[in-house]
Each structure stands twice: as C-alpha cells, then as structure tokens.
Amino acid sequence: MRRIVGQHGSTITMTRNSLISGATILLAVTCPPSPMPAQAIRDIETQRDRALQYRGCYELTFRDWNRDEGKEASASIPRRVWLTGVSFPPDSGGRSIVFIMRPAPHYEQSLFQAERWSLMPEADSLVLTWDNFFSGLQVVLGRADRRNSATWRGRSFYWTDEIEVRTSDRPATPATRGFVTAQEVECW
Fold first, then answer.
1. What is the pTM of this model?
2. Are 139 and 128 in contact (CB under 8 A)?
3. Which CATH number fits domain 38-185: 3.40.50, 1.20.1050, 1.10.10, 2.40.128?
4. pLDDT truncated to tens, each residue of the chain (188 aa)?
5. Burial class (CB in 10 A: 0-12, 13-18, 19+), 32
6. What is the CB neighbour count within 10 angstroms for residue 57?
7. Sign of the C-alpha dihedral, residues 180, 186, 187, 188?
8. Domain ranges, ordered by start, for the chain
9. I want to staple 158 with a disulfide (CB 3.0 to 4.6 A). Which of 34, 70, 82, 103 is the partner?
C-alpha cells in the first residue's frame, strides 16, 4: 500500500493493483491503435482490384414487383447508372469496400440521398443500393453467363423502417421485391 500526499494535505491511498490498473489505463490512452495486419490490407486491395473491373455504366430494367411500393421506389432510379471507382473510407471492420454510384451522364439523380455499390466477393455479385436512411432499394445482380455475357440478372428489394401494425388473424405482408436486369453500356 502506498500513500500519496497532495499539495493541500489531501491523501490518496493506493494499492499495488490500483497502481497497475492506473498504469494500464494510461498506457491504453496514450498508445495509438495497432495498424491493420498486412494480410488484411492485401485482402482489401485484392477486393478493390476485383471490384474496379466492374466500374462503368449499366442500363437497368426493373420488372415484376410484387407490391406497388417497389414500383414507386424504382421509378425514381435513373435507367442508366454509373458505377464509379471512387470509394468511401473502409468500414470499421475493414471487410468491404463501398463505391460511389451516380446517374450516368445526361440522366437525372434519383430521389434517394445515398447511392452506392459494392462487390460481394464470394459470389461475384454486384450490390447496388439507394437509400434515404428511412427507406431504400437494393439490387443484387449476378452475371447471366459468367464467361462472356454483359447482361446481369438479379433481384431488387425495397425496404422501409415503417412498422406494420397487424392483427393476429392477418398474415404478415410479404417483403417487397422484384426482378432486375442490367446491361453494360457506354457511359457517353
């Protein structure tokens, strides 16, 4: 046990454990976090390189929505989108890279505030997302013929944070979804 006497006569009694804890806290506060392991950095760079081969412009065709909300949401999406090579800063886990998506030149911006795209590396699928933080539309696309096709096919999903109030005798409303195709096109 150790006694520390302050300038104005106040005393603090510290045990060995509290001294060790204090030193640990001081060390944790003053030391910067360790950098990402080299393997994780290489994995992110590989993922970025794979994703960048898909940047460019795509013409989208939405169809077969099972509910009107999906039709309404997709109506504001430009029919041609530009998948840029500009990325957002990596997320805190550093596991996925997300890129900025824009309307293709000469096409109108959607009504959504955030527009982004990413590559699902394990499936070579493109994920296009539009949202305004309370509702959104997500498209997951895979190549129709992985070897030599410029056509992508997939599903579109509309989501919202509205809470559905229902009685026990009424079944839950099915998720709003539809189909979408995307064709690689020239940007200009």
1. 0.70
2. yes
3. 2.40.128
4. 555 544 555 544 545 444 444 443 443 444 445 455 566 666 778 888 888 889 999 999 999 888 888 888 889 999 999 999 998 876 666 567 899 999 999 999 999 999 999 988 677 789 999 999 888 999 999 986 656 667 899 999 998 887 766 666 766 666 789 999 999 999 87
5. exposed
6. 20
7. negative
8. 1-31, 38-185
9. 70
Query: Which amino acid would we find at residue 74?
Result: S
Neighbouring C-beta atoms of residue 139, cutoff 10 Å: 26
Which amino acid belongs to residue 153? R
Q: How far apart are alpha carbons 158 and 108 in whole angstroms?
A: 20
- In single-letter form, the type of residue at position 116 comes to R
Of 95, 84, 18, residue with least CA distance to 52: 84
DSSP H or E stretch at residue 36 = none
Read off the DSSP letter of residue 174. P
Please say whether the beta carbons of 60 and 73 come within 8 A. no
H/E element, 68: helix 68-75
Cα separation, 113 vs 150, whole angstroms: 28
φ, ψ for residue 125, nearest 5 deg:
-110, 140
Residue 180 CA neighbour count, 13 Å, CB half: 29
